[in-house]
Write a structure and sequence with these properties.
Blueprint lengths: L7 H7 L5 E3 L8 H9 L4 E4 L5 H12 L6 E6 L8 H17 L19 H10 L3 E5 L5 H9 L3 E6 L2 H10 L3 E5 L5 E2 L14 H11 L4 E4 L5 H9 L4 E4 L1 H4 L8 H7 L8 E3 L7 E3 L3 H6 L12 H14 L23 H17 L1
Parallel strand pairs: 1-9, 2-3, 3-4, 4-5, 5-6, 6-8, 8-9
Antiparallel strand pairs: 7-11, 10-11
Helix pairs in contact: 2-3, 3-5, 4-13, 9-14
Length: 360
């Protein structure tokens, strides 16, 4: 892809052909999706932040069975949840009518269903052993010793920033590439501290600020759905663009029928930020769960991922009855531009559209 605003440096570093990343998207991405994206020349990703090391090993193996190209393995670096039994009990009580509505009983207690990478030595050992081309971090950055171990294994390290302060922290920690996640992005905000004030910078502003302020390649993320958006990110100085919602409708993703239907409905025009589903702010298609979240003080919601324990249980109970209105239908503000096609075809289309936009 030739243009005055593109650079081959990042492509060469990552072993990819086009400046397009598929966002990891825990719960939606699959090894099949990642392999299709990578085989088409972009950077495919799997999210293992919600997995055990054993499950992560199987996912990496499944990718390798379908592709010899570069893979991004994403982990979560959130602070372990604070245990507050009174808040947990109050949240369960609050959700009880919703469980009753779908003929189910809420869990008796909430659990920390995911281990943070910050305390998951087994996951670190796996990644050092498997040596994926890329390891990426969301919600923060691990200790220097972990960064050094992964660098020594040969992995390129990428992490998300939603502000200049976070980006500078990543730079100081030795992260190689920074993803500038704008407020438009679907799924969980990458904020290091979900309780701190969030300036909510948009993708364009944040990308330009980081390009001018840090000495690292910047990847733009948030609201980008087509080649025109990728080209705009490149013109802002980003070395690549990361797209998540654009890949949800691909047949290789694990999005369920309810999610796919919602993505093509009017809901796509009205995404909202909520903490109610998982305990961390995340952008979702509006549904019964997000409406419920509008009625509560975010301080009442248990920490991530304890709140997600209840959220997943409620969604599972409802879905068993054909009700998808409690799903974690994470989607960005560009959702109305979604198009359903195989992932490889989407990458080809994105590449063509980007080249056309850069020539215009």
């Amino acid at each position: 892809m030739s243009s005055a605003v593109t650079s081959t440096a990042l492509l060469d570093l990552l072993g990819i052909d086009v400046p397009i990343f598929q966002a990891p998207m825990a719960g939606v991405s699959t090894p099949e999706l990642a392999a299709a994206v990578s085989n088409a020349g972009a950077l495919g990703a799997i999210a293992v932040g919600a997995s055990t090391a054993a499950d992560a090993r199987k996912a990496i193996a499944a990718f390798k069975a379908k592709s010899t190209r570069s893979l991004n393995v994403n982990v979560f670096c959130h602070a372990p949840a604070r245990v507050d039994p009174s808040r947990d009990d109050a949240w369960i009580h609050f959700l009880r009518p919703e469980f009753a509505r779908v003929g189910a009983t809420p869990p008796a207690a909430l659990k920390e269903i995911y281990r943070s990478f910050l305390v998951d030595d087994e996951m670190l050992a796996l990644l050092v052993r498997e040596k994926p081309k890329v390891v990426s971090f969301h919600f923060g950055v691990p200790p220097i010793a972990t960064v050094e171990a992964l660098h020594d294994a040969g992995s390129v390290l990428i992490a998300t920033a939603t502000s200049l302060r976070e980006a500078r922290a990543l730079e100081t920690a030795g992260i190689d590439v920074v993803v500038a996640q704008g407020i438009e992005a679907g799924g969980h905000r990458g904020v290091f501290d979900p309780d701190a004030p969030d300036d909510g910078l948009g993708t364009c502003a944040l990308t330009r600020i980081l390009v001018r302020s840090i000495d690292r390649p910047v990847v733009a993320a948030g609201g980008i759905m087509d080649g025109a958006g990728v080209a705009a990110a490149l013109r802002l100085g980003a070395m690549a663009a990361q797209l998540g919602t654009a890949f949800v409708a691909c047949p290789e993703s694990s999005a369920d029928a309810g999610f796919r239907a919602a993505l093509t409905s009017d809901a796509a025009h009205h995404t909202v930020m909520t903490r109610a589903i998982s305990g961390r702010p995340a952008r979702s298609l509006p549904n019964r769960f997000t409406a419920l979240g509008r009625t509560v003080d975010p301080a009442r919601v248990p920490d991530y991922p304890r709140a997600y324990d209840a959220g997943k249980a409620l969604h599972a109970a409802a879905r068993a009855n054909g009700d998808f209105s409690y799903g974690a239908h994470w989607a960005g503000q560009g959702a109305p531009l979604s198009r359903a096609m195989p992932a490889a075809e989407l990458v080809v289309a994105l590449r063509r559209e980007t080249e056309e936009a850069l020539r215009a």
